[in-house]
Amino acid sequence: MKAAVCRRYGPPATITIETLSDPQPGAGEVLIAVQAAGLTSGDARIRGAHAPAGMGPMIRLAFGLSGPRRPVLGREYAGRVVALGAGVTRYSPGDAVFGITDGMRMGAHAELVAVRADGLILPRPDSLNVPEAAAFFFGGLTAADFLLDQCALQPGERVLVVGGTGAVGSAAIQIARHHGAHVTALAGAGNLDLARELGADVALDYRTAPAKGPFDVILDMPGLMPDAAARLAPGGRLGLITADLATMLGAMLRPRRAGGRRLCANVVKETPQALARLVALHQAGAYRPLMGAQFPLADIAQAHAQADSGHKRGNLVIEMEPQL
What DSSP string runs through 192-203? Predict the structure, then answer.
């Protein structure tokens, strides 16, 4: 199979296309012919060994000291089942599926990937095309976890989404609006109409029109709003999607702050229940991934460069060549 391989940390050019042995499904696994895969900010951070302050050593301990131990990155995928491991009865060859690979296993930026049949995999609904299915989970799971679980969003509350047209922000606007919130989005000047189309009641240029608040919930995607807590109403919740180590520890040890305000910066839950909830939101018309640029596997380094830019719109997707 062809695969995008990262054997050392570095810039996008460190990603190369190699021919590797096909993986074989073990007991309880299915082998997926990947049709498309998402490329997320997480993939770019692993490739470049970029991490919020204090977390760099943790990334190298978890993924490898000089380069990823598992050199094929990527977790989100959409494709078709091509082979079954021993004991699998849930799927059949030819089934259209989508999901995310387990934990730090990765491997989706390749033509084939083996995943657990009882893991984070679901049948692909007809309402999602292949690129949408490949981009479905990263932004949606993150937005739903922070809004509904960590920040406990209630109908009628005022929500500020900082970074409203990226993968997570675009999902957050849709999900917050569906749950009856009044949504203000901060985005670049060229993306304000898009933020409104996604469901924002108010869309402001983050460079020239600061959102004064107060807000009941603020989701800061890039972590670039140092005075966000000051814009919270009493009892408000600040969700920091990209938090440094000190902030994450502070959120765990002392989440409650002055005025009953709360800091939310916990790890997003990836469970079958969380995946099923997101699919239910999609089926209710509350969420569809915002599609950004799509690249063939051969141009994956360009996708990594766009992810590094910090200004990508929506979700980046890698498309595989059809397999005979």
Answer: HHHHHHHT-SEE
Q: Cα separation of 161 and 169, whole Å?
A: 6
CATH number at residue 55: 3.90.180.10
- Same domain (yes/no): 176, 106: no
Q: Are residues 31 and 77 in the same domain?
A: yes
**Residue type present at position 67:** G
pLDDT of residue 35: 98
pLDDT one-digit tens code per residue, 254-290 = 666 656 788 898 889 999 999 999 999 999 999 999 9
Residues 129 and 9 in one domain: yes
Helix (H, G, I), strand (E, B) or coil at 168: helix
Region 13-26: mean pLDDT is 97
Cα–Cα nearest to 222, from 311, 315, 313: 311
Q: Is this model's pTM higher than 0.85 or not?
A: yes
Phi, psi of 105 (to 5 degrees): -70, -40
Residues of the domain holding 259: 138-264
